[in-house]
Amino acid sequence: MTITDITADAPSPHGANENGGTLLEVRDLHVEFHTRDGVAKAVNGVNYSVAAGETLAVLGESGSGKSVTAQAIMGILDMPPGRIPQGEILFRGQDMLKMGKEERRLIRGQKIAMIFQDALSSLNPVLSVGYQLGEMFRVHQGLSKKGAKAKSIELMERVRIPAAKERVNDYPHQFSGGMRQRIMIAMALALEPDLIIADEPTTALDVTVQAQVMDLLAELQREYNMGLILITHDLGVVADVADKIAVMYAGRIVETAPVRELYKRPSHPYTRGLLDSIPRLDQKGQELYAIKGLPPNLTRIPSGCAFNPRCPVAQDVCRTDTPVLHQVTEADGAALPGRGSACHFWKETIHG
Amino acid sequence: MGRYVARRLLQMIPVFIGATLLVFCMMYALPGDPVRALAGEQAVDPAQIAAMKKDLGLDLPLWHQYWNYLTGLLHGDFGTQIASGQPVADIIADAFPITARLTFFAFAFTTVVGISMGIFAGMKADSARDRVLLMVTLLLISVPSFVLGFLGQYFFAFQLGWVQPNVSGEANWNELFLPAVVLGSLSLAYVARLTRTSIAENLRADYMRTATAKGLPRRRIIGVHLLRNSMIPVVTYLGTDIGALMGGAVVTEGIFNVKGVGWSVFGALKQREGATVVGIVTLIVVVYLVASLLVDLLYAVLDPRIRYA
């Protein structure tokens, strides 16, 4: 190498990814939980990647493994009972699962940060928000108490909390739900990480506040050119902010697509079911569509395609063969970049 | 905050009157006569006894005796012992520091050892060490303290000779060690279990996951985020425990011959010295009330969600 190390962060010329700046790549990740009732296979071979400035939305019902995947990336899984039998989580090309504890701790908060769903229970009730925000600077940057507090006020202003200076010593329960979530966002943002994982950041919020919080998150992401993994079960939240979507079911990714295309032409019966179950004004008075049945028990995932017992188009092959993530193409065979579907009948689903 | 403290202090007045009245009535209801007991086995002229009773005000109706006692208290007069003629205030002044020392020692033992044991076990709930703790504490809870006292005396004083079986009049710190351990062992068991459960529960809290996700070192996560939250129920228990320890000292002081409050109250009970019993019990009640007020104030410091107005 003749060039100095400033290029370490620049896209590698031989990068496999077309935009080169892949921050995080999850490869064939498996997570299982050993419980009294048996082994629950929460994640069964997930692959996805996020680049700087890109937003990946991970969509799925509760129990689909979307949060567990995120926790595995953060390294905050409870192990035991959790276990990662195989897979790789590459952050800037380095496998985090092979790193030492201390090495991973230094990545957490500094390089990858996480926003949790319920800000009230996720913030420590007995410590002031200023203290909890300031902790990031004190621990990772060795700032003094005073310096950390000044930084905390600055952060609170950046996420537009009114009267930040007066409120810095308040406790989480003294803030409204939306303001608390802003504090969570501020905390994740504190050290300007490369990647933020937001685990259902708006689920616990009022609908009117949801949009504000999402807009703020999207704006800050653009400003810092961060990668964002947005975990949600709300299709409405995703549409405006995400670049690409991965739909998860029973610990597997069943469909990936750029966001617009997924809404326009889903290529998996499960995605179609999700889209059809959104209430629509022009269908007022008709019965709302619902995917029949329940999500599978993770200790006994159905053989073949996990979705087959609930699938309206399931055939015999779906009960025996597990579908791989097929490359989805146009009817004439033209490639559709970034699209994949783990359905034996993706052609029929997308092209009718 | 100031108003809250004032209200709490005012509330102590009825509790104080109620407690003294209750003990006063109980002493009155007990069979036996302190004046008659002075003479022992000898036959005494009933007229002489009646005269003595009149002098001491014991011939008055109960309500009048109680009134005299209360007005005496307001003037700082705790009454006088019938048998020895010693003022009760002097007896309390002699005995109270000894009991206070014993209680303090037992309390410190309970707090330090109990909380450490609780943290040690709670960090790994359902592990071998957790089960051992639960078993040992269950044993401590179910064995009465006088059994524990005699066992301790037998092994550590008579068999091993590490300590003296009886505590001398000075009640030095080293002499009080074994009595304090015996006195504190029951509370220790409760504190250890309470801490253990609180720690085990809070370990699974969402804010702990957040603290890990922030990349904080483990020592900070445990020391700052976990302990502060887990100590809230323990502190509540410890406050009421001070009063319980003073009450429990009656038995322990008896076993180890500690000349403290418990020992005095026991002697007074045997001789039907009403004023002494009421005085000491009232003192314990006041200590209890003040301790629980302090705990309630400390509670607000530990948990900012609690505000007093």
Automatic annotation (TrEMBL), chain A:
<dbReference type="GO" id="GO:0005524">
    <property type="term" value="F:ATP binding"/>
</dbReference>
<dbReference type="InterPro" id="IPR003593">
    <property type="entry name" value="AAA+_ATPase"/>
</dbReference>
<feature type="domain" description="ABC transporter">
    <location>
        <begin position="24"/>
        <end position="275"/>
    </location>
</feature>
<dbReference type="InterPro" id="IPR050388">
    <property type="entry name" value="ABC_Ni/Peptide_Import"/>
</dbReference>
<dbReference type="InterPro" id="IPR003439">
    <property type="entry name" value="ABC_transporter-like_ATP-bd"/>
</dbReference>
<keyword id="KW-0067">ATP-binding</keyword>
<dbReference type="Pfam" id="PF00005">
    <property type="entry name" value="ABC_tran"/>
</dbReference>
<dbReference type="GO" id="GO:0015833">
    <property type="term" value="P:peptide transport"/>
</dbReference>
<dbReference type="InterPro" id="IPR013563">
    <property type="entry name" value="Oligopep_ABC_C"/>
</dbReference>
<dbReference type="GO" id="GO:0005886">
    <property type="term" value="C:plasma membrane"/>
</dbReference>
<dbReference type="Pfam" id="PF08352">
    <property type="entry name" value="oligo_HPY"/>
</dbReference>
<keyword id="KW-0547">Nucleotide-binding</keyword>
<dbReference type="GO" id="GO:0016887">
    <property type="term" value="F:ATP hydrolysis activity"/>
</dbReference>
<dbReference type="InterPro" id="IPR017871">
    <property type="entry name" value="ABC_transporter-like_CS"/>
</dbReference>
<comment type="similarity">
    <text>Belongs to the ABC transporter superfamily.</text>
</comment>
<dbReference type="InterPro" id="IPR027417">
    <property type="entry name" value="P-loop_NTPase"/>
</dbReference>
<feature type="region of interest" description="Disordered">
    <location>
        <begin position="1"/>
        <end position="21"/>
    </location>
</feature>
<keyword id="KW-0472">Membrane</keyword>
<keyword id="KW-1003">Cell membrane</keyword>
<protein>
    <submittedName>
        <fullName>ABC transporter ATP-binding protein</fullName>
    </submittedName>
</protein>
<keyword id="KW-0813">Transport</keyword>
TrEMBL record, chain B:
<keyword id="KW-0813">Transport</keyword>
<keyword id="KW-1133">Transmembrane helix</keyword>
<feature type="transmembrane region" description="Helical">
    <location>
        <begin position="234"/>
        <end position="256"/>
    </location>
</feature>
<keyword id="KW-0812">Transmembrane</keyword>
<feature type="transmembrane region" description="Helical">
    <location>
        <begin position="132"/>
        <end position="156"/>
    </location>
</feature>
<protein>
    <submittedName>
        <fullName>ABC transporter permease</fullName>
    </submittedName>
</protein>
<dbReference type="GO" id="GO:0055085">
    <property type="term" value="P:transmembrane transport"/>
</dbReference>
<dbReference type="InterPro" id="IPR000515">
    <property type="entry name" value="MetI-like"/>
</dbReference>
<comment type="similarity">
    <text>Belongs to the binding-protein-dependent transport system permease family.</text>
</comment>
<dbReference type="GO" id="GO:0005886">
    <property type="term" value="C:plasma membrane"/>
</dbReference>
<feature type="transmembrane region" description="Helical">
    <location>
        <begin position="176"/>
        <end position="194"/>
    </location>
</feature>
<feature type="domain" description="ABC transmembrane type-1">
    <location>
        <begin position="96"/>
        <end position="299"/>
    </location>
</feature>
<keyword id="KW-1003">Cell membrane</keyword>
<keyword id="KW-0472">Membrane</keyword>
<feature type="transmembrane region" description="Helical">
    <location>
        <begin position="276"/>
        <end position="302"/>
    </location>
</feature>
<dbReference type="InterPro" id="IPR045621">
    <property type="entry name" value="BPD_transp_1_N"/>
</dbReference>
<feature type="transmembrane region" description="Helical">
    <location>
        <begin position="102"/>
        <end position="120"/>
    </location>
</feature>
<dbReference type="Pfam" id="PF19300">
    <property type="entry name" value="BPD_transp_1_N"/>
</dbReference>
<dbReference type="InterPro" id="IPR035906">
    <property type="entry name" value="MetI-like_sf"/>
</dbReference>
<feature type="transmembrane region" description="Helical">
    <location>
        <begin position="12"/>
        <end position="30"/>
    </location>
</feature>
<dbReference type="Pfam" id="PF00528">
    <property type="entry name" value="BPD_transp_1"/>
</dbReference>
